[in-house]
Amino acid sequence: MAAPAAWDDPEPLAVSSAPVPEYGSGSLADLLPTLAAGMGVPGMTASITELTPADRNCVFLIDGLGWEQIRSHPDEAPYLHTLLGSSRGGTGRPITAGFPATTATSLASVGTGLAPGAHGLPGYTVRNPDTGELMNQLRWQPWTPPRPWQPYPTIFQLADAAGVHAAQVSSPHFETTPLTKVALSGGRFHGRLTGEERVDFAAEQLAAGDRSLVYTYYAELDGAGHRYGVASDTWRGQLMYVDRLVQRLAEQLPPRSALYVTADHGMVDVPFDEQHRIDFDEDWELSAGVALLGGEGRARHVYAVPGAEGDVLTCWREVLGEQFWVASREEAVAAGWFGPHIDERVYARLGDVIAAARDDVLIIASEREPKESAMVGNHGSMTPAEQLVPLLEVRS
Questions:
Q1: If you ran DSSP here, which 8-state letter would residue 51 be given?
Q2: Backbone Cα Rg of the chain
Q3: Are 383 and 267 a contacting pair, CB within 8 Å?
Q4: How far is it, in rounded angstroms, from Cα 365 to Cα 296?
Q5: Model confidence over 137-157: pLDDT tens digits?
Q6: For 212-303, where are the alpha helices, taking DSSP H only?
Q7: Residue-level pLDDT at 11
Q8: What is the predicted pLDDT for the residue at 4?
Q9: pLDDT-derived band of residue 7, with 50, 70 and 90 as boundaries?
Q10: What are phi and psi of 118, to 5 degrees?
Q11: Is the bond leading into 4 cis (omega within 30 degrees of zero)?
């Protein structure tokens, strides 16, 4: 007689059931190559086939503005809401961020036109195989020579070399950061403090060339989400401000221009209790055999003590497998989580075990990562709330 269902061992989530990003046809990595191809930049491919070429293209990336967050807030973002039908060339569909859905990874995908497995920034923190240390790819700590870490040219560099007027308009703070150097350099960087100054100058830069590729960025929505959550009044106030910024830029577009509003990831709020926040630093099962814990709460890279890789995978799958997609490095690579190709220099940066959250849960590390563990809003995984980002379009 079969045992009652209540006594059955729970089935872990199949690695193959994770919704892999649309690399090669509808991901952030495909955006700038598509726009550059339309401007005649050699070697570029228009992979997002729904987009129509324009002579002047502006990408306004709003950190943390997920597709589902726009759809859920029509009152706070009335202008953005009217543009939902324009997304992805008028199909009314989003694109995908890439895995993990986190800022350093996504900005590198945008700027290089490459998936994470090629550009080599496959997480918030990853192991540096040369030193054995965790490397924070957003803050670039500990300092690592940027060019060997990410050796490919950016799309801005290629466009500039092809005679396109290329420019980035962002906070002055970002001008000299290693992340900007490896992901977004090329042409001219213009630092502007306020959101209004940035969008106004982005419009001027669009008009500065017969062919222009301009990028501008706003980070404060993401900061409000991390600190207060996407259900907070503070976050909604930021969304209202972002809505006005987008409309302000759209109303200043010079002739023959296309504005694309997108994001690096969405966000989910995670409750503060032991059921939703699993503390690695206090969990002897999860920490057994683990040498380093990388990534972030919803997208973990787990580096095992040599020889313990199989045991760590088994344990993480048994403990977390109903709430997380838990894969070995080889399984995640074969499933295409990081793109269709993994560069040899990138392979060892990936965790021996990779855990991506399906449910509203986190693997925090209260002692190692006190600031990150205290965040209300989080992101990183492949759920629609994190992975789907807009590609809203306005043309002049």
A1: P
A2: 21
A3: no
A4: 9
A5: 999 999 999 999 999 999 999
A6: 220-228, 233-250, 284-287
A7: 81
A8: 42
A9: very low
A10: -100, -50
A11: no
Question: Measured between alpha carbons, how far is 218 from 170 in angstroms, rounded to an integer?
Answer: 7
| 269/104 Cα distance (integer angstroms) | 20
Largest CA distance in the chain: 77
Q: How far is CA 4 from CA 9, 11, 71, 161, 183, in A?
A: 11, 15, 42, 68, 54
* Residue-wise pLDDT tens digits, 292-332: 999 999 999 999 999 999 999 999 999 999 999 999 999 99
Residue 64: left (phi > 0), alpha (psi -120 to 50), or beta? left
**Alpha helices of the chain — where are they, by DSSP H?**
31-38, 67-71, 78-82, 87-90, 103-112, 116-119, 146-149, 155-161, 178-183, 195-207, 220-228, 233-250, 284-287, 309-320, 329-335, 344-347, 370-373, 384-387
Which residues have CB under 8 Å from 197's CB, separation 6+? none
Give me the amino acid identity at 251.
E
Is there a contact between 40 and 162 (Cβ–Cβ < 8 Å)? Answer: yes
CA–CA distance, 128 with 142 (Å, rounded to integer) = 10
Mean pLDDT for the chain overall: 96
Tokens of 360: 């509203």
- Among 47, 41, 122, CA closest to 341: 122
Cα dihedral sign for 94, 95, 99, 103? negative
